[in-house]
Amino acid sequence: MGTRFIFFSGKGGVGKTSMACTTGVYYADSGHKTLIVTTDPASNLADVFEQDIGHKVTKINGIDNLYAMEIDPDKATAEYKERSLAPMRELFDEEMLKIAEEQLSGPCTEEMASFDKFIDFIEEDSYDVVVFDTAPTGHTIRLLELPVDWSKHIEESSKGSGQTCMGPVALIQESKKKYDDAVAKLRDPKQTEFIFVMQPEETSLAETVRSSNELKEIGITTTKIIINGLIPKEEAVNPFFKSRYDMQQTYLNKAKDTFMTIPIKTMELFDSEMKGIEMFRKSSGILFKGSDKRE
């Protein structure tokens, strides 16, 4: 099979990282070489796997086939600038290089670098599965809009001034194909799954509806929704938990009515913290119950 890309997004605090790690552990245990990449600057991927990870692909201890990386925006920017300047060093003098470096020192470059690194992984073919644990929804939507926006910007600039905020179109013309290829993969549900994680609450449901519609506007399909943190029915025995259980069931049913054409999975609230390989094996047994291990 080709590389599958699985995105997890949703409101802050809904359990995106837990569900991304649950999925990563499931595929790794199923024999698929799997990479989890986080695009969230406030990631706690290292905390939940209880080891250092950082801005490099790192083997996860205690499990075969699983790797992880936390994208550092500052390091991604430095790498992008060096990658852009390297081919110019043999062609231009110091003065021209200084001008080029100044052009690569604005906020435009920082924005470009963060999604350029992200797109590197969309081009990745050395893993069977790449799982993206993303920043809260607004950042993620922007990240996914950027390849579309930049491709248009390069095309329009090439027909007009020939200049972009990154400098001459000629220097980044090759990037247009890269962005167009990434957009094609993101829009193909056979290659890319886009999963929203939400809590069974009104605000979380409202944001999921809004974000799913925004994704649709840029041609990306929501393939699954995970409703996380459900209180088990057998635990709803005292008034406090019974009240919360009833509220959760209301929004679970509203979500099912709202997303009638999108598969919905549920995950119960555990009585311990979601961290460590064994905990993710426990949650994957619930999330993927009935799934074919060869998927």
Automatic annotation (TrEMBL):
ArsA/GET3 Anion-transporting ATPase-like domain ranges (all copies): 3-287
SUPFAM superfamilies reported in the protein's UniProt record: P-loop containing nucleoside triphosphate hydrolases (SSF52540)
GO molecular function: ATP binding; ATP hydrolysis activity
Pfam families the record matches: ArsA_ATPase (PF02374)
Residue ranges crossing the lipid bilayer per the database entry: none
Coiled-coil boundaries: none
Sequence similarity: Belongs to the arsA ATPase family.
Name this protein carries in UniProt: Arsenic-transporting ATPase
Organism: Biomaibacter acetigenes
